[in-house]
TrEMBL record:
Domain of life: Bacteria
EC number: 3.5.1.11
Keywords: Hydrolase, Zymogen
Top class in the EC scheme: hydrolase
GO molecular function annotations of the record: penicillin amidase activity
Complex formation: Heterodimer of an alpha subunit and a beta subunit processed from the same precursor.
Protein family membership: Belongs to the peptidase S45 family.
Protein name, UniProt field: Penicillin amidase
Matches recorded under InterPro entries: Ntn_hydrolases_N, Pen/GL7ACA/AHL_acylase, Penicillin_amidase_A-knob, Penicillin_amidase_dom1, Penicillin_amidase_N_B-knob, S45
Length: 787
């Protein structure tokens, strides 16, 4: 019996081992072939795929369509699961892959009918763009088919990958609209709530654009600060308990999608070359958002296009074509609004428009659910967009550029072929992407700023301090601005340009772009100041600004914090607070406790100063928060300077007492009262870059995720790093001199955790190392031939 039992255990162990080996071999089989020759359907002419030691791909061919095919091929082989989740998230089709866990997300996302919109958009694209999307689609499916097994995520999910469709590339573009713009018009809703519940003097104060730290490219006279509300107009001392929790007031600490870019003209470089720096700030996971790509087209019209691509979309998104280089930052213009629907029947099925009454449209969407039954959900639309129900009495219709005809598209072929600043800016204006600031440098060393993406003629969209327009007189969208009427700055007199998500435009240009809730100006101001602190630049100097972790925003808070500690009187905890603040070195360094405490002190003061101003609104609308008021620093500093008694929260007898309460809240939060080691900024701000499946598969996290890292930086300084949010890439490049350029990004080229390129190059990003913009020596060569 013991012998039989022993044999049984041995057989079981052998079976488990065989199964494990088989599973490992299946995973290995899903890695791409890197060398030799491969015949694939759909390719017209030969393309060579070269890869360097980090897996960076260079594609060489004769035709743009063949290069688009090859781009789809390498994207699918290295990043198909990422592409799949991007298209599914935009279309609201994640539940078919993940089951019930994604059902609520799909229910909300289906409201926009993304797949129908992508199909309609595809049919309207110019022939050249349709040809590239079609070739890319064939390349994706050929690349997926050429793998020896399905990508590993599908093994783990017990699913099969679905073939790529041409509209899927438009869905990937739409996913960026969802990420980078206000797809629900929430800012317009909050502005309406403010106008309805607060005195106009309070609204004007909260939305005041007067900021001595503003650093726009387009200069304008600094607006005069809005007057403070008079005591007989707004008296906060009579309020009962006021909510002063920072996270509750400001919607948590989720960072805003953004980016940095700047350019210097040839007269400021060491050797007469214009230079461009760009780092796009996004949430960081594995794989990274971007995929490094070099397209080399030979023949009668040769072109080399180098930079980063977005898996799911053909072409290079940001980079250089040898004649011009370009980089993007999120514009935070006004790209969505809402309309108050006026019903004309008790059943709320008909509504009023400027052209008469209209019936609501009902669209049924079928949501496929893995392991469950399909769910059919009806969605109601107006002529402007989907209906957003507020309550039984009020409903809003959404207007969003991502869904307007012509807002979504492609358009990158024209940018790839641009030879001059004017051609690049014209091409950028036609891009079907979320509207972005674009900086361009040409080979002659001239520089320019403009807007990339379609700008709508906004009609009577809501403006600051106004109520939402009624549907009976809403003029939503009479077309798109023509490229020649776009805001632009070309060859500026000061030879420098800079953007960092704060307001860039002024005057008429600001009217065209609008105000979608610009973030604080501190980061943009610091970049501008760095550019004027030097008269000569090279690639290393540009990278140094990208890595600048000096926290200038907090300098003025040091004396306030010390004065507060002195006024409060001695205690062990307050002494520790004062000591750390006094010896703070001025940088957002991971080992610093002083930076963490000073940053927390500023946040606590902001909450206590601003909470009373919106207290009446938060009582009427509990879901309201202060996210529309993003440039809060000048307002808070002004109130601390003026110290108006009637605007002081009723919990305090003086403004000094407010400051002490903020300090003590920081002491309690970070447990300064005792002998325990102090928390540092690195502990608080640790970067944990993870694969999206590691939560569901905790046992595999050690292979899927990167080690926890403490990095310098924060959201309001040039080196943006807040948790898993930061620079998704950094590049410095001069067109025509790409071999001197700099590039690095988190993670690696491949999304396959068994690939040597899964995290190749990641340490260079962590350390801020200046690695080459161009790929290194070829290590692998694969020739693709058509059947």
């Amino acid at each position: 019996m013991k012998r039989i039992l022993g044999w049984s255990i041995a057989l079981i162990g052998l079976s488990v081992a065989v199964a494990a080996v088989a599973f490992f071999l299946a995973l290995r089989a899903s890695l791409p072939d890197l060398d030799g020759e491969l015949t694939v359907a759909g390719l017209t002419d030969e393309v060579t795929v070269l890869r360097d030691e980090q897996g960076v791909a260079t594609l060489r061919g004769h035709r743009s369509e063949d290069l688009a095919f090859a781009t789809g091929f390498v994207h699918a082989q290295d990043r198909f699961f990422q592409m799949d989740t991007l298209r599914r998230s935009a279309a609201g089709e994640l539940a078919a892959l993940f089951g019930d866990a994604a059902l609520d997300f799909d229910r909300e996302r289906r409201r926009w009918r993304g797949r129908d919109h992508a199909r309609a958009t595809l049919a309207l694209l110019p022939h050249e763009e349709q040809s590239q999307v079609s070739a890319y689609t064939e390349g994706v499916n050929a690349g997926l088919l050429a793998l020896g097994a399905r990508p590993p995520e599908y093994w783990l999910l017990r699913q099969q990958p679905e073939p790529w469709q041409p509209e899927d590339s438009l869905l990937v573009g739409l996913s960026m609209f969802f990420y980078l713009t206000d797809e629900r018009g929430d800012r317009a809703h909050r502005l309406d709530q403010m106008a309805a519940e607060l005195p106009s003097s309070v609204v004007d104060l909260l939305l005041d654009r007067a900021d001595p730290r503003a650093a726009p490219i387009v200069e304008e006279a600094l607006p005069r600060p809005a007057p403070l509300p008079e005591p007989d107009t707004f008296q906060v001392r009579d309020f009962e308990e006021v909510i002063m929790d920072h996270d509750r007031l400001f919607g948590g600490v989720e960072p805003l999608p953004g980016s940095n870019s700047w350019a210097v003209a040839a007269s400021l470089s060491e050797d007469g070359r214009g230079l461009l720096a760009g780092d796009m700030h996004l949430g960081i996971s594995l794989p990274n958002t971007w995929y490094r790509l070099n397209l080399e087209r030979s023949g009668a019209d040769p072109r080399s296009i180098r930079g980063v691509s977005l898996p799911g979309v053909p072409g290079v998104i940001a980079g250089s074509n040898g004649s011009v280089a370009w980089a993007f930052t999120n514009s935070y213009g006004d790209w969505s609004t809402r309309v108050r629907v006026e019903w004309v029947d008790e059943a709320q099925q008909r509504y009023q428009t400027p052209d008469g009454e209209r019936d609501l449209e009902v669209h049924e969407e079928t949501i496929e659910v893995k392991g469950g039954e399909d769910e059919i959900v009806p969605y109601t639309w107006t002529e402007w967009g989907p209906l957003l129900e507020i309550n039984e009495e009020e409903a809003h219709a959404l207007v969003w550029t991502g869904m307007l005809p012509g807002g979504l598209g492609y358009g990158f072929p024209a940018l790839h072929e641009a030879e001059s600043l004017a051609e690049a800016l014209d091409a950028a204006a036609g891009l079907g992407m979320p509207p972005q600031n674009i900086l361009v440098v040409d080979r002659a060393g001239d520089i320019a700023w403009g807007i990339a993406g379609r700008i709508p003629e906004r009609g009577n969209w809501i403006e600051s301090g106004q109520r939402l327009p009624d549907s009976s007189d809403f003029q939503s969208h009479s077309g798109w601005l023509s490229p020649e009427s776009y805001p632009r700055v070309v060859a500026p007199e000061r030879q420098r340009l800079w953007t960092a998500n704060a307001r860039v435009a002024g005057g008429d240009h600001l009217e065209q772009v609008g105000d979608g809730g610009y973030p604080a100006a501190a980061r943009q101001r610091q970049i501008r100041d760095r550019l004027f602190e030097a008269e000569r630049f090279d690639e290393a100097a540009m990278l140094a600004i990208q890595l600048d972790d000096e926290a200038r925003l907090l300098y003025e808070w040091v004396p306030l914090a010390i004065e507060t500690a002195d006024f409060a009187g001695n205690s062990e905890a307050r002494d520790r607070f004062r000591r750390e603040i006094t010896h703070w070195h001025g940088h957002a360094w991971p080992e610093s406790s002083g930076y963490l405490f000073l940053r927390s002190f500023r946040q606590a003061v902001h909450a206590r100063v601003l909470a009373p101003l919106v207290h009446p609104l938060m009582e009427e609308a509990p879901a309201f928060d202060l996210r529309p008021i993003r440039n809060r620093e000048p307002l808070v500093r002004r109130l601390l300077s003026k110290q108006p008694e009637h605007l002081l929260a009723p919990a305090f007898d003086s403004w000094a007492e407010l400051m002490v309460d903020a300090m003590d809240a920081v002491i309690d939060r970070h447990e300064l009262d005792g002998d325990a080691a102090l928390m540092t900024w690195g502990e608080y701000n640790a970067t944990r870059i993870r694969h999206p499946l590691s939560d569901a598969l905790p046992g595999l996290g050690r292979w899927l995720d990167l080690p926890e890292t403490w990095l310098p930086g924060d959201q309001h300084i040039p080196r943006v790093q807040l948790g898993n949010f930061g620079a998704s890439q950094r590049m410095v490049v001069s067109p025509g001199h790409e071999d001197d350029g700099i590039f690095h990004m988190p993670g690696g080229q491949s999304g396959h955790f068994l690939s040597p390129w899964y995290d190749a190059g990641h340490e260079d990003w962590v350390e801020g190392q200046a690695t080459p913009f161009l790929p290194g020596e070829t290590r692998h060569s694969l020739r693709l031939r058509g059947e």
